[in-house]
Amino acid sequence: MQENDYQISSNNIRKYYYSIGSVFSPALKQIVIFNHYGLRHLFGNRNGVRSKKEILHRYNLLKYTEIILSNVKEISGTRKLMGRKSIMEFFSIERYIDDKKVRLIIRRLNKGVLHFYSIMNT
Fold first, then answer.
1. Does residue 102 register a pLDDT over 70?
2. Buried b (16+ CB within 10 A) or exposed e, 28-39
3. Which residues contact 18 (CB under 8 A, 6 or more apart)?
4. Distance separating alpha carbons of residues 89 and 67, to the nearest angstrom
5. Across the chain, how many H-helices and E-strands are there?
6. Contact 38, 115 (CB under 8 A)
7. Average pLDDT for residues 57-71, to the nearest whole number?
């Protein structure tokens, strides 16, 4: 993949991601928003920037987020982390799509709104 191909894809990722806006989740019984936290996590994590291949893989999974969030009725896992300045709650929602399990991670910071955080194959 050439650098220009990645740049075009990077812009497409941002546009598509923000076009989702928000989705009601029956599993969480709340609206999940798509804000800068999830977008930033698509491009990197605490270990640094993701590879171009990994970013594009996650981008290709994004098309399933609305289907999964709006149709899955149960949370598959939860986790709570206490930091020095914040409390983070994570919720996993999973669904099989095309014989592959796709997992969404939804996060809440300091009892705020739920937001999309990550997507992956498991």
1. yes
2. beeebbbbeebe
3. 34, 39
4. 22
5. 4, 8
6. yes
7. 92
- Per DSSP bridges, beta strands 87-97 and 100-109 are antiparallel
Give the global pTM: 0.86
Which residues are bridge partners to 49 per DSSP? 44
CA–CA dist 2, 88 (Å, integer):
37
Cβ count near 52 (within 10 Å) = 14
* Integer Cα distance of 101 and 105 in angstroms: 13
| Helix/strand/coil percentages in the chain, nearest 5 | 40, 40, 25
Q: Which residue, among 44, 45, 42, has the nearest Cα to 20 in the 3D structure?
A: 42
Name the residue ranges covered by the structural domains of the chain. Answer: 3-121
Residue type for position 48: G
Q: Residue holding tokens 């099989």?
A: 96
Give the type of residue at 121. Answer: N
Q: pLDDT tens-digit profile of 4-48?
A: 454 557 788 889 999 999 999 999 999 999 999 998 888 887 777
